[in-house]
Specification:
Structural class: mainly alpha
Helix content: 25-40%
Number of domains: 2
Strand order of the largest sheet: 1-2
Distance between the termini: 40 Å
Order of helices and strands: HHHHHEEH
Number of strands: 2
Number of helices: 6
Largest sheet: 2 strands, antiparallel
Strand content: under 5%
């Protein structure tokens, strides 16, 4: 039997923020669940000037929101602190900073791995070249060698063969997953080194 879900949450970070009574990442003043950085200070890298949030302060602000008499007071408290009341604050052991983590799929696979793949290994294609490069790679006759960076190369030497893919998205020695590269060829060597370490 089980439960049939018609859809799932598009943004788990927003969902967990609503459950624990905190403002989400789209808030102007209180976008972070762990510190008091505003959108104006988002590029700050000096950790000495970043004020971390604490559980006691969050619980006190949530109770203050709950005890507010008018809707205007509640809105003002939420705008100031980015916290509203949640029934979870009634649990004495509940810590909103450590008990409400984003699940690994969104935090690791879509965050860290995406950053490493696109920015470090050069796996992304610029928006203006992506359609052209995709059509060019996939429209070539089967078996014709194409440089991973998109240029044709007539050099048939054996040591260069691993840098070419005979068809669209076919794995090679340096590119076992068949990913399309838009970066420098040296990124392929880094990818091979990482694959060997794993």
């Amino acid at each position: 039997m089980g439960v049939k879900l018609s859809s799932t949450a598009n943004s788990p970070k927003d969902a967990i923020c609503k459950v624990i009574g905190m403002a989400g990442h789209s808030s102007d003043k209180n976008q972070c669940s762990f510190c008091c950085v505003t959108k104006d200070e988002i590029n700050a890298v000096d950790l000495d000037h970043i004020c971390p949030r604490n559980t006691h302060g969050l619980r006190k602000q949530a109770i203050e929101w709950k005890n507010a008499v008018t809707l205007a007071d509640r809105k003002a408290i939420f705008q100031t602190y980015g916290v509203r009341y949640s029934v979870l604050y009634e649990l004495p052991y509940f810590d909103p900073l450590s008990n409400a983590a984003v699940e690994p799929m969104h935090n690791i696979f879509l965050g860290l791995l995406q950053h490493h793949g696109q920015n470090i290994f050069g796996l992304k294609i610029s928006a203006q070249n992506s359609e052209y490069q995709t059509k060019r790679r996939c429209s070539q006759p089967r078996g014709r060698k194409t440089d991973v960076l998109g240029d044709e190369n007539e050099d048939e030497s054996a040591d260069q063969e691993s840098l070419y893919a005979p068809d669209c998205q076919i794995p090679t020695d340096l590119n076992p997953l068949g990913a399309r590269f838009s970066g420098k060829a040296e990124n392929l060597q880094r990818l091979q080194d990482v694959n060997q370490e794993i």
